[in-house]
Structure prediction request, 600 residues.
Amino acid sequence: MMGVECKSLQIIQTVRELESVLNRDFRMGKTVGFVPTMGFLHEGHLRLIETAKEHDDIVVMSIFVNPAQFGPGEDFESYPRDLENDIMKAEKAGVDILFIPTAQEMYPSDSGIRILPGPQADVLCGSKRPGHFDGVLKVVLKLFNIVDPDRSYFGMKDAQQLALIETFVRDFNLRTQIVRVSTVREEDGLARSSRNVNLNASERLEAPSIYRALLIGAENFDAQKSPQDIEREVVELINSNTSGEIDYVTLLSYPSLTAITKDSKEVILACAVKFTNTRLIDNIIMSTKDGFHVPNDDEQ
Amino acid sequence: MMGVECKSLQIIQTVRELESVLNRDFRMGKTVGFVPTMGFLHEGHLRLIETAKEHDDIVVMSIFVNPAQFGPGEDFESYPRDLENDIMKAEKAGVDILFIPTAQEMYPSDSGIRILPGPQADVLCGSKRPGHFDGVLKVVLKLFNIVDPDRSYFGMKDAQQLALIETFVRDFNLRTQIVRVSTVREEDGLARSSRNVNLNASERLEAPSIYRALLIGAENFDAQKSPQDIEREVVELINSNTSGEIDYVTLLSYPSLTAITKDSKEVILACAVKFTNTRLIDNIIMSTKDGFHVPNDDEQ
Prediction:
């Protein structure tokens, strides 16, 4: 009988095998934590694994560059892949089961049934990537059904993705708990991203100004400045301290991603900035409880 | 500790209570069979329960008139309800758990995330009910997540609904097995339906001709007549034997609901006929294996 005794990394490539290894009846009360990724693992992913290991008995990571979430003209083909390195990193970080399906294994057939996000997908990065979040919700629903995790771990850097997934789980009673994991940053505050290597030397020096601008925005939010004034000041700070071109700087309720009201329990201040060869995103999510904010990176 | 020891009917109205009663860790290896309904139970529903009891240890039935699957101008308000009678019938039939949520309990919030069916929803009854199957897929996904059934039971009378749900389960790896249950018929062959009471006396006498026409269509399919000829003959038979107005008579691959090809493994011959105060649907699903068909009502 297949069980879930995991002494070392187990690599699984088919849905059928993963489902049988993770069968609820064989779990013996052990909890499963799930970390879905597109591979090319960096510190941010390792933080997800670390957090999963704190809460769950068995940690499952998936590596799947999901074609359904790339639009025409986007970088599906050139998306960075380094499976050998990823496997070593996953094993070292203590992943128990690594699920690496092919696209054929994940999408053997397509009837055209789609999951369409609501207005949450029309703001921030979603406004520039039509169809992107359809593909995200599709793969997430499939992976949740295959793995059946007790908890699933997502980074707060992809805040819009996290907002949509939290909402999908809530509105469709999906059987997993979503755990938010803080953005991992360089010592100078720049959010870790595989895209940072595409910054040139002077851009790399400027880039931490993005997060510094967001922190000032957060202070201004605490000081009860208006959303317009907060956004304007962040825009000015980024413009005067970097050579990048601002895509957006936006303050919204979180995770609804609608305009802020006095009932907003959480808010997000998010931005995207284009540099010569790459585009960076960053954000701060703040609780409005008791009139104070709690930045997502409060342990920094 | 709440368990799933079910000596008599247990009525549950909240998602939270149902989830805790059906918690996988408390099931002790017992299987759960699920029968989703909109209530006003008739013989067809009782057959679903009976089949579930043959396969599963615990039978859960839901009664929920799902507003999301009624379009504007459809009969959500006037849809027949008789909860007291339903509870008696469910208890007598041996249902273990009856889930009766309110609309507020099922849809406490709406972010606008929708599940859109593909072209399967554009034929047969779906062509006249835009948005209907969005609402069906939404409630089905929610109920599957809440109940987490090993098997779920659906009647073959609602063949398009069944086709869509089978496809949704396949393409999104939903964690339940779909069991098809044959249409229950009156002695004269008329498919059981709560709508049959709306036929007037002469229509009631004519109505069995619908199924007889479908059976002749099935014979013609076996005799390898063309889809066009098969459909035409069924139309002629219904027209000459009833006063009803034909909405459609259609032969398609099943469950894809696309045009028949030589690779079709199953086909459906389906029709809808309007009478004075009601509209009846019926169908025959045939396997094409070994060149023979197997009507879905072969035990009749």
